[in-house]
Amino acid sequence: MKITFYGGAKTVTGANYLLESGDTKILIDCGLSQGNKEAERKNFEPLPYNPSSVQALFITHAHVDHVGKIPKLVKSGFDGAIYSTPPTKDFAELLLLDSEHLLRREAEEEGRAPLYLEEDVLRAMTQWKTQDYHSPFEIGPFVVEFFDAGHILGSASIKFTAEGKSIIFSGDLGNAPAPVIRDPDPLPAADYCVIESTYGDRVHDSADTRESELENAIEDTVRAGGVLMVPAFAMERTQDLLYHLNGLVEQGRVPRVPVYIDSPLAIRLTDVYKKYKEYFNRSVTKEMRAGDDILNFPGLHFTLTAEQSKEINNVHPPKIIIAGSGMSNGGRILHHERRYLSDPKSCLLIVGYQAAGTMGRALVDGAKTVRMFKEEIPVRCSIRSITAYSAHADQPHLLAWLRPRRGSLKEVFVVQGEEEGAMVLAQKIRDELAVQASVPSYGEEFML
Question: How far apart are CA 174 and CA 2, in angstroms?
Answer without folding.
Answer: 27
